[in-house]
Write a structure and sequence with these properties.
This is Restriction endonuclease type IV Mrr domain-containing protein. It holds the Pfam family Mrr_cat. The protein has a domain of 113 residues: Trna Endonuclease, Chain: A, domain 1. It is built from 5 helices and 5 strands; from the N terminus they run H-H-E-E-E-H-E-H-E-H. The protein has a 5-stranded mixed sheet with strand order 1-2-3-4-5, covered by helices on one side. The termini are far apart.
Length: 205
């Protein structure tokens, strides 16, 4: 049989052990509850998220700029195309109003860049129209020369530019090339082309 003192001692020992376990559990639970992640890790995660968002925004901005640039180029191209055709229509009407027969070649297959075929007293002229603000480059002149070589040599070629937009029709290199390689080309504008054609034909009759 246990003595009272032994019973009390055993009960006290059991109670004390439970108390220690409870405190240990409380401390462990408390530590989990109040756990704070490493500040450096938090900053890394935050920075990574911000970088992804910035990268995404940057792509959207680039895509938007690209779309705007493409749209701007398309509008400019369409505008230049319309301006060129307006100038051709204007000149064709002017030829017809001055006793000539002018036929526009609207992107016909095989026209080789010729915009208007003008006939005056049975003499044919091949007319290439240019309505632009920048002087005509050497590359353009070379391509035009190549195109004209496909036609009959009896035809006279005219490079016709818009005087309202161009004061100097050719670049320096284009001028030198025309002078030395293609002197037969006639560089004219809307103000002097009618007189040129009439004088050219009448002086040869």
């Amino acid at each position: 049989m246990y003595h009272l003192s032994e019973f009390i001692s055993s009960r006290f020992s059991f109670t004390f052990r439970n108390l220690l376990n409870f405190q240990s559990l409380s401390v462990h639970t408390h530590n989990h509850t109040t756990f704070k992640p490493n500040l450096s890790d938090v900053n890394k995660i935050k920075k990574s998220k911000e970088d992804k968002e910035n990268k995404c925004d940057s792509k959207k901005i680039k895509r938007k700029r690209s779309d705007e640039t493409t749209r701007s180029k398309r509008i400019k191209k369409d505008s230049n195309y319309k301006i060129g055709h307006d100038f051709e229509a204007k000149m064709a009407k002017k030829f017809n109003n001055n006793g000539m027969l002018a036929q526009r070649l609207l992107c016909s297959p095989g026209d080789f860049g010729i915009d208007i075929l003008v006939t005056y007293k049975k003499k044919a002229f091949l007319v290439q129209c240019k309505s632009q603000v920048d002087p005509i480059s050497l590359g353009v002149i070379q391509r035009l020369n190549s195109n004209v070589s496909r036609f009959d040599e009896s035809m006279t070629y005219i490079l016709l530019y818009d005087s309202e937009k161009l004061e100097r029709p050719l670049t320096k290199f284009a001028e030198a090339w025309v002078k030395n390689i293609w002197p037969d080309v006639n560089i004219l504008n809307d103000t002097n082309v009618i007189d040129f054609i009439k004088n050219f034909v009448d002086n040869r009759m």
